[in-house]
Amino acid sequence: MFGWEFPPHITGGLGTACFGMTKGLLKNGVEVLFVVPKAYGDESQEAVRLINASDVSIDIRKTEELEFWKNITYLEVNSSLVPYVGPEAFDNLIENTEKATTLSEESIFNARYTFSGKYGENLLEEVARYALVGAQIARESQFDVIHAHDWLTYAAGVAAKQATGKPLVVHMHATEFDRSGENVNQRVYDIERSGMEAADRVITVSNLTRNIVIDRYGIDPAKVITVHNAVEPTDQIDFSQIEKHVPEKVVTFLGRVTFQKGPEYFIEAAYKVLQRDPNVRFVMAGTGDLLEKMIRRVAQLRISTRFHFTGFLRGENVDRMFAMSDVYVMPSVSEPFGISPLEAMRSNVPVVISKQSGVAEVLQHALKVDFWDIDAMADAIYGLLQYKSLPRMFAKYGAQEVNSLKWENAATHIKNVYEQVC
Questions:
Q1: 226 and 247 fall within a common domain
Q2: For 331, which DSSP code?
Q3: What is the DSSP-derived secondary structure letter of residue 6?
Q4: pLDDT category, 310, cuts 50, 70, 90?
Q5: Helices 123-140 and 63-71, interaxial angle, to 10°?
Q6: How is residue 355 annotated by DSSP?
Q7: Distance between CA 168 and CA 201 in Å, rounded?
Q8: Same domain, 224 and 256
């Protein structure tokens, strides 16, 4: 299994999903060798054997590696591409970064390379190197099937398949259309499409994503299978012991502050709620290219005294934030799935989610609105804050519903996909 991040070192839901998935696969009798570009040593290996790509030596001068290197012409190197950055910020990054047009033989053909494992200006260079290392790891390991997560690892999956002849399953957690709307980055789109075309099966996290894969990438519907995500149960925190320290109700947005997540709609809905009830506090937890713009908008609306920006939260702090919340809102413009509402619901927090999300396909006890309908969003938030029986009902039945969405069950479907190609 090729991934780009693994808890506790994550930037979003991808690492969280990989962790839960591997634990679920272990319960289904599947042994996982999980490869990451850079391991820090504190990752949980309770369900996987973690392989650090930075520790793997390659001999690029071997004929087979050279042949593969010639074939990955679509992988441009030394690019300033960052997967979670919007078009405007991307252009600024390109303008402010000195771009190299070639990569020296000494740097690309050395025996070992230390990956940063981050989403920096040399991301595509690392993606290319990761593919070479992936082929090397595949030749040295015993396994039955290759599983690659999202576009960053697709080239590694393809290289491993070419090196061993083993079947390849690629997992589409988010498409370039989800991240960028119609302003897609052609390089990323081409990598996604090439990976899915080379794969024996494509797993999508929702039917929403499956339709995009088929309609926008031209992938054969027969090999595209939906397996909905799940959520890890939590029993580490006693939520009853966590205090809010403020008397007002708390409404939370938690996610990347980017176009895809719809943070501006959350702020506009917050303004409308505060016109009806000023005794509410709103929290935006996360970072992203739109953060500065969101802070300015909150100031323009003169609601700064009722709005809080926490920055990026991870691990236990996420659970603590949910424990202090009365309502959770996910107003995503295009959300392939969305694990965060499940995390909120397992903390007995009622949720408002956009209809343009994959998780809306599986949740019954959630209020669903169109992301652009800030009036409906505000009404949903206001109703959950004002009418006590409504949040009680959603909290009670929502918790029961989310408890049935286990990674062990999702992993059963994933194992079935493996068996179809092996």
A1: no
A2: -
A3: B
A4: very high
A5: 140
A6: T
A7: 7
A8: no
Question: Residue 332 and residue 356: Cα distance in Å, rounded?
Answer: 7
Task: Of 349, 292, 288, give the one whose Cα is nearest residue 318.
Answer: 349
Q: Are residues 41 and 160 in the same domain?
A: yes
Assigned domain for 134 exists: yes
Q: Is 110 inside a domain boundary?
A: yes
Three state DSSP letters for 47-84: CCEEEEHHHCECCCCCHHHHHHHHHCCCCCCCCCCCCC
- From the list 200, 103, 99, 98, the residue with the least C-alpha distance to 158 is 200
| Structural domain of 385 | 239-403
Q: Which residues contact 34 (CB under 8 A, 6 or more apart)?
A: 1, 3, 6, 18, 22, 48, 49, 50, 51
Residue indicated by tokens 């390659």: 58
Of the pLDDT bands very low, low, confident and very high (cuts 50, 70, 90), residue 125 is confident
- DSSP for 249-274? EEEEEES--SGGG-HHHHHHHHHHHH
Residue 328: phi and psi, rounded to 5, are -115, 135
Answer yes or no: do 83 and 180 share one domain: yes
Number of Cβ within a 10 Å radius of residue 7: 16
Looking at residue 62, its pLDDT comes to 53
SS3 content of the chain, % helix, strand, coil (to 5): 45, 15, 40
Residues 220 and 267 placed together within one structural domain of the fold: no
Q: How far apart are CA 271 and CA 278, in angstroms?
A: 9
Q: What is the mean pLDDT of residues 397-416?
A: 92
Residue 390: phi, psi to the nearest 5?
-65, -55
CA gap 348, 401 in Å, rounded: 11
Q: Which secondary structure element, helix H or strand E, spans residue 283, and what is its range?
A: strand 280-285
Q: What is the pLDDT of residue 59?
A: 61
pTM of the model: 0.84
Considering only residues 191 and 63, tell me which one the structure prediction assigns the higher pLDDT.
191
Q: What do you get for the CA distance between the two ends of the chain, in Å?
A: 15
Q: CA–CA distance from 250 to each of 305, 323, 384 (Å)?
A: 13, 10, 11
pLDDT for res 236 = 55
Per the DSSP assignment, residues forming a β-bridge with 57 are 112
Beta strands 224-226; 249-254: pairing state: unpaired
Maximum Cα–Cα distance for the chain, whole Å? 70
4 vs 62, residue with greater confidence: 4
In which residue are the tokens 């070992």 written? Answer: 112
Is the pLDDT reported for residue 79 higher than 70?
A: no
246 and 374 in one domain? yes
